Amino acid sequence: MFKEARIKLTLWYLLIIMAISLSFSGVIYFGVNNELTRIENFQRVRIQGIIRGFPIPIEASPNSDIDTINESRLRIILTLSFINLSILALAGIGGYFLAGITLDPISRMFDDQKSFVSNASHELRTPLTALKTEIEVALRDKKLSLSEAKELLASNLEDVNKMTRLSNYLLKLNKFDNVENKLEFKKVDLAIAVKKAIGKDKIETNLRSTTVLGDEDSLIELVLILVDNAKKYSKNKTDIKISTKDNTLTVEDNGVGISKEDLPHVFDRFYRGDKARETEGYGLGLSIAKSIVDLHNANINVESKIGKGTTFTVTF
Q1: Angle between helices 64-140 and 146-177 (to 10 degrees)
Q2: Which residues 6+ apart lie within 8 Å of 18 measured at CB?
Q3: 3-state class of 269 per DSSP?
Q4: Which of 197, 248, 295, 309 pairs as cysteine with 254 (C-beta 3.0–4.6 A)?
Q5: Fold observed for domain 186-315
């Protein structure tokens, strides 16, 4: 599909460039031709020996100048034709290359969308399949007791909660991907945003007042995601440290850490490293965090060592 679109876009580039090139060539030719015609008419007057009614002696070979003028016309036509053919060839190569650059972000976005839909469908299919299987088995069991029915409902509720969490993640991801022109940025104290996010959680903090321009609700959501991520991979809450200073937010844990192979992909949607698969999740939290960071024109950096923990640093 994109190959065909690239060819069509190249042809449109060629059409526009050649239309401009031929227009300029036409202007140049007609301008030069008018001047040559003026000279030619002047030479014809000389040949007739009449300038302002006075006879003028005519030199030998009087038609040579007119022949030269006609030859100049032909050379101009050939030169302009060569230039336009060269432009056509160069524009074809350059247009195809430029069309590739133009379509590349769209192609990657399309691939990301396909991957996103595929992964989301897979994540939803898993709890739905479990839910359906359990219900079908229970319906075929004529001796199903009340306690077994309650156990079944509890299991079903767990699967429903999983789908609800996934739906909430998807809604948040869509929200922060499409609010660029809707959020009204104001001055926000990062320290206060952190306090609102962690609430009464007993997490070690070193909060210094530092003001940034942003959306408070989004920044609270960012802190919640980073803290929740730290909780998943830490043995206890005392291993988590949060600090704010100089327009910087830092969330540090002493958990399992992230391998060098997984580190470049931690913000990819639905990506989960080997260690992450041991805990419940969908691989969307850090993607949402990255969207919030990008929305605030900030930078997020992650450093990690296996067995020693991970540090996320957001710089505004």
Answers
A1: 160
A2: 84, 87, 88, 91
A3: coil
A4: 309
A5: Heat Shock Protein 90 (3.30.565)
Q: Which residues contact 28 (CB under 8 A, 6 or more apart)?
A: 80
- Residue with token string 């002047």: 42
- The CATH code for residues 118-177 is 1.10.287.130
Three-state secondary-structure class, residue 153: helix
Question: For the residues of 68-101, what is the DSSP string, one character each?
Answer: HHHHHHHHHHHHHHHHHHHHHHHHHHHHHHHHHH
DSSP 17-65: HHHHHHHHHHHHHHHHHHHHHHHHHHHHHHHHTEETTEE-PPPS-TTHH
Whole-angstrom Cα distance, residue 15 to residue 29? 21
Structure tokens at 5: 């679109």
Record the tokens describing residue 233, joined without a space.
């991979």
pLDDT digits 0-9 by tens, 232-280: 877 776 678 999 999 999 998 888 888 888 888 888 877 766 555 556 6
Total residue length of the chain: 316
Do the domains at 118-177 and 186-315 have one common CATH topology?
Answer: no
- 314, 227 in Cβ contact below 8 A? no
Tens-digit pLDDT profile for residues 183-199: 678 899 999 999 988 88
Q: Are 292 and 178 in contact (CB under 8 A)?
A: no
pTM over 0.85: no
Q: What does the alpha-carbon distance between residue 112 and residue 15 come to, in Å, rounded to a whole number?
A: 32
Could you count the other beta carbons within 10 Å of the beta carbon of residue 196?
A: 14
Q: Measuring CA to CA, which residue among 309, 311, 291 is closest to residue 301?
A: 311
**Domain locations in the chain as residue ranges:** 2-112, 118-177, 186-315
The 3-state DSSP class for residue 237 equals helix
